[in-house]
Design goal:
Electron transfer flavoprotein subunit beta; about 270 residues; ETF_b; ETF_beta_N; seven-stranded parallel beta sheet; three-stranded antiparallel beta sheet; Rossmann fold; 12 strands; single chain; alpha/beta; about 25% strand; transport
């Protein structure tokens, strides 16, 4: 089985994260890191490869320094990496990101290269939080989509997963090829070992530009911040956390707690 995993370099969630005046994330502050949810997506792919064989390719769209995230993914066990890097991509929204990634998947699966059975992504990045790219990518590729999965299995050309929500658990399935996204409840990612770190240096890492994707279905107007379909108009800082409510139990504590939770729509 040949699998593509979408990964992204994001500001470390444990560091300081700020926005620029134009509403975009200031990526020069803080420590960049491979997104945690993408590590889980990669782990899902690696486990599928271990049982079914094949190859795992990690794919990212980002600035030159995003190569660091790709190297970590290679050290974790991915077989090869593809980096879509072009200055014109700065400021791309989810719609444009999906268009570029779809073209990159097609380019990576061009004649002479591997064809792909499965595209795996995290359900949402920790910086953008749109949770839209996997579904948009599936639409672009004309493939079925199974999103927000907590577990994944593949057997006899069928991918199956469990989507767990507050409303209940749903079992989903689709014939391969397909696009899936996984949640924080999926596989716990492995740590790169010394052998993996050393071997990552010699694994293939291909860089593509927008010009390279022109022959794979990407229209110039679909890429780049200048053509973005969405615009951040204003940004407001998160309000400071207010103090909690203290309820002393004078015999009515239980009912008062229940009333408090009901007022907050928590029960």
């Amino acid at each position: 089985m040949n699998i593509v995993v979408l990964v992204k370099q994001v500001p470390d969630t444990y560091g300081e994260r700020t926005l620029r005046e134009d509403g975009r994330i200031d990526r020069e502050r803080g420590t960049p890191a491979l997104d945690e949810i993408d590590e889980r997506a990669l782990e899902v792919a690696l486990r599928l490869r271990e049982t079914a064989g094949g190859e795992v390719t990690v794919l990212t769209m980002g600035p030159p320094e995003a190569v660091v995230a790709l190297r970590k993914a290679l050290a974790m066990g991915a077989d090869r990496a593809v980096h879509v890097c072009d200055e014109a991509l700065a400021g791309s929204d989810a719609l444009q990101t999906a268009a570029v990634l779809a073209a990159a998947v097609r380019a990576t699966a061009a004649p002479g290269a591997a064809t792909f059975d499965l595209v795996v992504a995290g359900n949402e990045s920790t910086d953008g939080r749109t949770a839209a790219v996997p579904a948009m990518l599936a639409e672009r590729l004309g493939l079925p989509q199974l999103t927000f999965l907590g577990s994944v299995a593949v057997d006899a050309g069928i991918v199956t997963g469990l989507r767990i929500t507050p409303e209940g658990t749903t079992e989903l399935c689709a014939a391969l090829p397909a696009v899936i996204s996984v949640t924080e409840g999926s596989a716990q990612p492995r740590f790169p070992n010394f052998k993996g770190i050393m071997s990552a240096r010699s694994k293939p890492l291909t860089t593509l530009t927008l010009a390279d994707l022109a022959d794979h279905g990407l229209v110039e107007a679909e890429a780049g911040g200048a053509n973005s379909w969405s615009l951040v108009c204003t940004v407001t800082a998160r309000p400071a956390r207010a103090g909690g409510t203290v309820i002393s139990d004078d015999g009515t504590g239980g009912s008062r707690i229940a009333a408090f939770l009901a007022a907050a729509n928590l029960i």
